[in-house]
Specification:
globular, 309 residues, cobalamin, 10 strands, two-stranded parallel ribbon, 2 domains
Length: 309
């Protein structure tokens, strides 16, 4: 006889798969003991740069029971975004692969809400909240805790079967479930990501100085880019994939099957010249539903101009 906890866990994982999630892992909601000193140390060294929000809600970041009252389980989900094609002009300014299609926040939030409604319909009165990279939740720590992968030397989550080109999201709910065990680290002696980082942002294995990371510089930093980074941006105008591109585990990445992640028809064929002469109208058309809107037209052109020799 299958007990209710196992039955509910199986139901949730099957529905997550049906909704298109690559994988689903579950861990017990509680204080992240190992993460606390790491996060404190990282903040003390100002590795969050101007991301002041990283300093807010320190306790909530480490304890989901403060975010969702009486929460029992953190359901971690991965959604693949690896594209089948990339930008065609090798000299064009580069865009991180995750930003090719529609903004992932909306797409994933919709799937998470569907999963929560399913849980409430099938199991009964369950309260919870959906999180997609927009609240004080340590996504990667929870995904690792629930066995979906390990946190690599570049601080991204890596999975043996599929690499690291996926989004991480959570549902935190007040329902007891069967919990998964963490997996082991398979980075070994490899230092590919550390050696390849154009700005030397990976200061030591498993530690990234956010204030030196190209993703931070091109997206989060609102003022002028520091001149120290001139010539070190490796032609990235929005985000950066270098540490993932060189990771041996990403040999196993497979193209996503989410139509909403497909790029705007013009995006991949834009040449270096097209980008350097981009108008606000083109920006609005190509990035109408994209996460790139976050930098705004002024931010993207600032980045493109900074790349000019």
């Amino acid at each position: 006889m299958i007990n209710a906890k196992t039955k509910n866990t199986d139901l949730i994982k099957a529905e997550a798969k049906r909704l298109g999630f690559m994988s689903c892992g579950i861990s017990k909601a509680g204080f992240l003991e190992e993460e606390a000193p790491r996060l404190e140390n990282w903040l003390n060294k100002n590795m969050n740069g101007q991301m002041q929000y990283m300093e807010n809600h320190f306790d909530k970041r480490l304890n989901p029971t403060l975010l969702v009252e009486d929460s029992k389980s953190v359901i971690s989900l991965l959604l693949n975004y690896y594209p089948s094609e990339t930008q065609q002009d090798p000299d064009a300014p580069k865009l991180s692969k995750y930003a090719y299609g529609n903004d992932y926040h909306h797409i994933i939030k919709h799937k998470l809400k569907s999963l929560l409604f399913f849980i409430q319909d099938e199991i009964g009165e369950v309260s919870g909240r959906a999180f997609v990279d927009s609240a004080p939740v340590l996504d990667k720590a929870w995904a690792a805790k629930s066995g979906l992968g390990w946190i690599g030397k570049h601080s991204n989550l890596i999975t043996q079967q599929v690499g690291s080109f996926y989004f991480i999201a959570e549902l935190i709910i007040d329902l007891d479930l069967e919990y998964d065990a963490a997996t082991t680290d398979h980075c070994g002696t490899c230092t590919a990501c550390i050696d390849a980082c154009p700005t030397e942002a990976i200061t030591e294995p498993y530690v990234v100085d956010g204030s030196k990371c190209i993703s931070y510089l091109t997206i989060e930093l609102k003022e002028n880019l520091p001149t120290d980074f001139k010539g070190k941006m490796d032609d990235w105008m929005f985000g950066c994939d270098v540490c993932q591109d060189v990771c041996p585990w990403n040999r196993f990445s497979k193209s996503h099957s989410e139509p909403l992640f497909n790029p705007h028809p013009e995006l991949l064929s834009m040449t270096k010249k097209d980008w350097e002469e981009i108008t606000e109208d083109t920006f609005k058309k190509v990035f109408q539903k994209s996460a790139v809107k976050r930098t705004k037209f002024a931010g993207l052109t600032r980045n493109i101009n900074f790349l000019k020799k």
